[in-house]
Design a protein that fits this description.
Elements: H1 2-5, H2 12-15, H3 20-26, H4 37-47, H5 59-64, H6 70-84, H7 88-122, E1 126-131, E2 134-139, E3 148-151, E4 160-163, E5 169-172, H8 174-177, E6 183-185, E7 190-191, E8 196-199, E9 202-208, H9 221-228, H10 232-261, H11 266-280, H12 285-302, E10 305-307, H13 311-317, E11 321-325, H14 326-330, E12 336-337, E13 341-342, H15 348-357, H16 369-377, H17 381-385, E14 387-393, E15 401-408, E16 411-418, H18 420-426, H19 434-446, E17 450-458, E18 463-472, H20 479-488, E19 492-496, H21 501-511, E20 517-519, H22 520-546, H23 552-572, H24 582-591, E21 594-596, H25 600-612, E22 617-621, H26 627-632, E23 635-638, H27 644-649, E24 652-654, H28 659-701, H29 708-719, H30 741-769, H31 774-796, H32 811-830, H33 842-873
Parallel strand pairs: 11-19, 11-22, 19-21, 20-21, 22-23, 23-24
Antiparallel strand pairs: 1-2, 1-3, 3-9, 4-7, 4-9, 5-6, 5-8, 10-24, 12-18, 13-18, 14-15, 15-16, 16-17, 17-18
Helix pairs in contact: 6-7, 6-11, 7-12, 7-29, 10-11, 10-28, 11-29, 12-28, 13-28, 15-16, 22-23, 24-25, 28-30, 28-31, 29-31, 30-31, 30-33, 31-32, 31-33, 32-33
Protein name: Plasma-membrane proton-efflux P-type ATPase
Domain Cation-transporting P-type ATPase N-terminal: 14-87
Membrane topology: Multi-pass membrane protein
């Protein structure tokens, strides 16, 4: 076969235009049976999986990168200076710090990458393929050249292929060509991997897979990381980091200048300044927060929610408006047939039979599935076996119907099913009162039914109306309860549906959403009317100004001509309409409980207006045309069963139906956010505490509270266990949460000052009251910083509540922080850490510092609660 001869490298363009039978012959496949399972396995081994893996940095490259950059350079220079002055213990421990920092950062990145790979595996795309004469679903990566696949609306073309049916397809190739307009495809035309089927349904033969396609793509982790850098999350990290770097560098420079004035040893002074800077700048902040989100993403995956973009977790935590599709999210997305309305002389079985001919079971279309189920119940198999479908025209959004031509008992018939008004329009003979049919349709619509019309044309006769099939998608049993729960969480749930206003209001009432349902058309029509009035006034005034003597009739003719021309331009260019005042449109959208008669392009409009009102919006979607709205939303959510295009555009992909999955995801996202915020406040607090203490003690008292080596050990003990914050228990916030830099810096600043106050009280007691030796005082300060340091995390994790409030710390967090405090205590008590590093303080001072730190821990908690109470009274933060 051609693909085999060329090592599967045949370009799809080389085979385009060939008749389907000849193409199948060249690829050694069958249009009727496809490949056999054995042959497919052989080709998979020969050509490899259908995936294009982007080149990833090697493990060694990622590891060595940790030793290159401003922070590693500072640590390396500090180690070099320690060696130059003969401080070999310092050199060894600084080197250990460098290795630990690199190792922890490397481990964090590897963990995040592994988490994302697991999530991507859960999102493996499926393809409908003909194998051994049966249509089956397989993973896209298992496709091979010669496979016969079926494509329909919303599918991403899984590999380079050639259209094999005499059918019409409209394909979006913008991802490849940049051309925004869809391209029409006919038999023999090429279909490129990554394109999106916009209209139509057809079979195609796979020509090339994996790296041999014209353009194969998978989600690249590196590109994902770059997108993260543009998120709210990274902006917050940069703001925190910048503030701490500026403060640290400024105070360290003051310390350096003060030391130079005192004529201290330049190398020692420089080494101390470098070590203090390295220990104070929160180099681990981005990595810790990223790992926290990666761990959270795995938790979300266990709850049937797949995260495609890590920063979407932070955005989901801040969502205050959820624009939810009615179908599948609020309802069961399981259509059931109510009482069939046959049109005389037809019977209910006739309606189902003719609808069955215009359906395909292998498509698993939710509208058609109840028809097959009803046909089975009515035992129509024998009647169906007497018919052979010779032509089938799939549904498309423009014609709004499915058609089929069949030969039944030797007689040719044509059948159609689809939107009732469209079907009625095709009928030349209704054999009854058409008004009665319309009254039935109105009655069914008002009661929330979706209706299919069925038409029949027998050879040589007129098209006749067969009857109506009412379909009903009942609300999910838990929807009303979940909506009430969402509102308790500060989530405003707005229903989005393409159904008629009457159906939307009925469902909204049943679910307790509210009855303020806005017909999207009202906005357009009202806007057009107001625009026309405004245009008429302006044109009339301008014409009168330039031609004062014109008659009233002449003015009217001119105004009418200009307005008609402008309207034509708006319609032709699809510019929409100039609405009434923007603020009024935003208000209408914001105050509505739901939206009816919504087309996919309207979703983008709704999201935009809600965002202009200052809301963080989550939008659900499932179709290819939902992709722009999913991209526009702060958090795009592809619901269960969404098309490939919708999943690719979304931030989150749901693996289970219903609103409950989304609400659970919001709750968990808020927990993850609380973990990140508590760590951010903790890290800023510790930087303020250490840097201010060192600056004040050295500048004003010419006293070094700790040695450079102690700072290095403190940094080691602080960085290792804090990763456990990703597994902490946290309270679910009652309202949406967002990064509030004023809150983070204010609370951390006051806690840092409280820590400095406790340190200076200890400084006064040890120097002025007890007059202890300098080296012992430094050990005591080391003990104080190591014991009190991780205590701060227990202050920051409960925000405006006392530290003993629920939820209690996780066993992982408590074990990690307690063990490092105990280790630090042993180091201070015995003065040993891979060698003699400080003056032993003994157990008396060790236990005394624990008691002192616990007392100040309670005081710090009182400071924290007081600061939060003040911020809440000022309206600067929301109560938790």
């Amino acid at each position: 076969m051609a693909a085999a001869k060329n090592g599967a490298s045949s370009r799809v363009d080389d085979l385009k235009g060939l008749p389907p039978e000849e193409l199948a012959q060249r690829l050694e496949t069958s249009l009727d049976k496809g490949l056999s399972g054995d042959e497919a396995r052989k080709r998979l081994e020969r050509y490899g999986p259908n995936e294009v893996l982007e080149k990833e940095a090697s493990v060694w490259a990622r590891l060595l990168k940790r030793f290159w950059g401003p922070i590693p350079w500072m640590i390396e220079v500090a180690a070099l200076l320690s060696a130059l002055v003969g401080k070999w213990e310092d050199f060894a421990i600084i080197t250990v710090l460098l290795l630990v920092n690199a190792g922890v950062d490397f481990w964090q990145e590897s963990k995040a990458i592994s988490a994302l790979k697991v999530l991507q595996q859960k999102l493996a795309r499926k393809a409908r393929v003909l194998r051994d004469g049966r249509w089956v679903q397989i993973e896209v990566r298992e496709l091979v050249p010669g496979d016969v696949i079926r494509l329909r609306i919303g599918d991403l073309v899984p590999a380079d292929a050639v259209l094999a049916d005499e059918a019409y397809l409209q394909v979006d190739q913008s991802a490849l060509t940049g051309e925004s307009l869809p391209v029409n495809k006919k038999t023999g035309d090429p279909l490129y991997s990554g394109s999106v089927i916009k209209q139509g349904e057809a079979r195609a033969i796979v020509v090339a897979t994996g790296p041999h396609t014209y353009f194969g793509r998978t989600v690249a982790l590196v590109a994902k990381a770059e997108r993260e850098a543009r998120s709210h999350f990274q902006q917050a990290v940069v703001q925190i980091g910048d503030a701490l770097i500026v403060m640290t560098v400024a105070l360290v420079l003051i310390i350096l200048i003060a030391g130079l004035f005192r004529q201290e040893n330049l190398l020692e002074l420089l080494r101390f300044a470098l070590v203090l800077t390295v220990a104070s700048i929160p180099v681990a902040l981005p990595a810790v927060l990223t790992v926290t989100m990666a761990v959270g993403a795995l938790e979300l995956a266990r709850r049937q929610t797949i995260v495609r973009r890590l920063a979407a977790i932070e955005e989901l935590a801040g969502v205050d408006v959820l624009a939810a599709d009615k179908t599948g999210t609020l309802t069961q997305n399981r259509m059931t047939i109510e009482r069939i309305r046959p049109h005389p002389p037809f019977e209910a079985a006739d309606v189902i039979f003719y609808a069955l001919l215009a359906s395909r079971e292998e498509n698993h279309d939710p509208i058609e599935e109840p028809i097959f189920a009803e046909a089975k119940r009515l035992s129509l198999d024998r009647r169906l076996s007497a018919c052979e479908v010779t032509d089938f025209v799939p549904f498309d959004p423009i014609h709004k119907r499915t058609e089929a031509t069949a030969v039944c008992n030797g007689r040719r018939i044509w059948v159609a099913k689809g939107a009732p008004q469209v079907i009625l329009g095709l009928c030349e003979e209704t054999l009854g009162d058409e008004e009665a049919v319309n009254r039935t349709l109105d009655e069914l619509a008002q009661n929330g039914f979706r209706v299919l019309g069925v038409a029949l044309r027998e050879e040589g006769e007129k098209t006749r109306f067969v009857g109506l099939i009412p379909l009903y998608d009942p609300p999910r049993p838990d929807s009303a309860q979940v909506i009430a729960e969402a509102r308790r969480l500060g989530l405003d749930v707005k229903m989005i549906t393409g159904d008629h206003v009457a159906i939307a209001r009925y469902i909204a009432r049943v679910l307790g959403i509210g009855d303020r349902i806005l017909d999207v058309r009202e906005l357009r029509e009202a806007g057009m009317k107001e625009w026309q009035v405004l245009a008429e006034v302006l044109v009339r005034d301008l014409y009168a100004a330039f031609k004062p003597g014109a008659s009233e009739a002449e003015v009217r003719r001119f105004v009418r001509r200009v307005v008609e021309d402008l309207s034509a331009i708006f319609e032709k260019e699809r510019l929409g309409t100039v609405h009434r005042h923007e603020s009024e449109i935003v208000r209408l959208v914001e105050e509505s409980d739901g939206f009816a008669q919504v087309f996919p392009e309207d979703k983008h409009f709704i999201v935009e207006k809600l965002q202009k009102a200052g809301h963080i919006v989550a939008m659900t979607g499932d179709g290819v045309n939902d992709a722009p709205a999913l991209k526009k939303a702060d958090c795009g959510i592809a619901v269960e069963g969404a098309t490939d295009a919708a999943r690719a555009a979304a931030d989150l992909v749901l693996l289970a139906p219903g609103l409950g999955v989304i609400v659970r995801a919001v709750e968990l996202a808020r927990v993850i956010f609380e973990r990140m915020k508590s760590y951010a406040i903790y890290r800023v607090t510790e930087t303020v505490r250490v840097v201010l203490l060192m600056w004040a003690a050295i500048t004003f008292f010419n006293f070094y509270p700790v040695t450079p080596l102690m700072i290095i050990i403190l940094a080691l003990l602080n960085d290792l266990p804090i990763l456990a914050i990703a597994y902490d228990n946290a309270k679910v916030a009652r309202t949406p949460v967002r990064w509030n830099m004023h809150e983070v810096l204010t609370v951390a600043g006051w806690l840092g000052l409280a820590g400095v106050l406790s340190s200076f009280l200890l400084f006064y007691l040890t120097v002025e009251v007890w007059r202890l030796p300098h080296d012992l005082i430094q050990t005591i300060f080391f003990l104080k910083l190591v014991v009190a340091g991780h205590g701060t995390i227990y202050n920051t994790r409960t925000y405006d509540r006392w530290f003993w409030s629920r939820p209690y710390p996780s066993a992982v967090l408590f074990g990690a922080t307690f063990s490092t405090r105990v280790l630090g205590t042993f180091i201070g008590v015995y003065g040993w850490f891979f060698g003699h590093v400080m003056t032993p303080a003994g157990w008396g001072w060790g236990l005394g510092i624990w008691a002192y730190s616990l007392a100040w821990f309670v005081f710090n908690d009182a400071v924290k609660v007081s600061v939060y109470r003040y911020l809440e009274r000022r309206g600067l933060v929301q109560p938790s």
